[in-house]
Amino acid sequence: MNWNMWVRQIHRWTSIVFTGTVIANFIAMGMGEPPAWVVYSPLPPLFLQLFTGLYMFVLPYAAKWRSGQRTGAPGLNG
Fold first, then answer.
1. What domain of life does the UniProt record list for this protein's source (predicted)?
2. Which of 3, 4, 43, 46 is buried most deeply by CB count within 10 Å?
3. How many structural domains comprise the chain?
4. What are residue 34's phi and psi, to 5 degrees?
5. Is it the case that residue 66 has pLDDT exceeding 50?
6. How far is residue 26's CA from residue 24's CA, in Å, rounded to a whole number?
7. Torsions phi, psi of 13, nearest 5?
């Protein structure tokens, strides 16, 4: 498995973990004042999703840049 597939798998699994922690957060809030660790538990998977999502967002632009394709109006690139 290459690097891009690993990043995609990590992103998918952290989205499942993030969703579970948010659901647990709502359940805990419904029972009263939740402890701080429950309130902040969605943050680590959210930050991991941020970095993997940004990586996947930049991939097509990096591929174009590496292949030498330029974006913009024809004739302006020389």
1. Bacteria
2. 46
3. 1
4. -80, 155
5. yes
6. 5
7. -70, -35
What's the confidence (pLDDT) of residue 78? 47
* Domain containing residue 47: 3-58
Among residues 51, 28, 9, the alpha carbon closest in space to that of 17 is found at: 9
Q: 33: which 2 tokens?
A: 């004042």
Taking only the tens place, the pLDDT of each residue in 6-33 is 999 999 999 999 999 999 999 999 999 9
CA distances, 32 to each of 25, 26, 29, 43, 60 (Å): 11, 10, 5, 21, 46
H-type alpha helices, the chain: 3-30, 36-39, 43-67
Assess if residue 24 is contained within a domain: yes
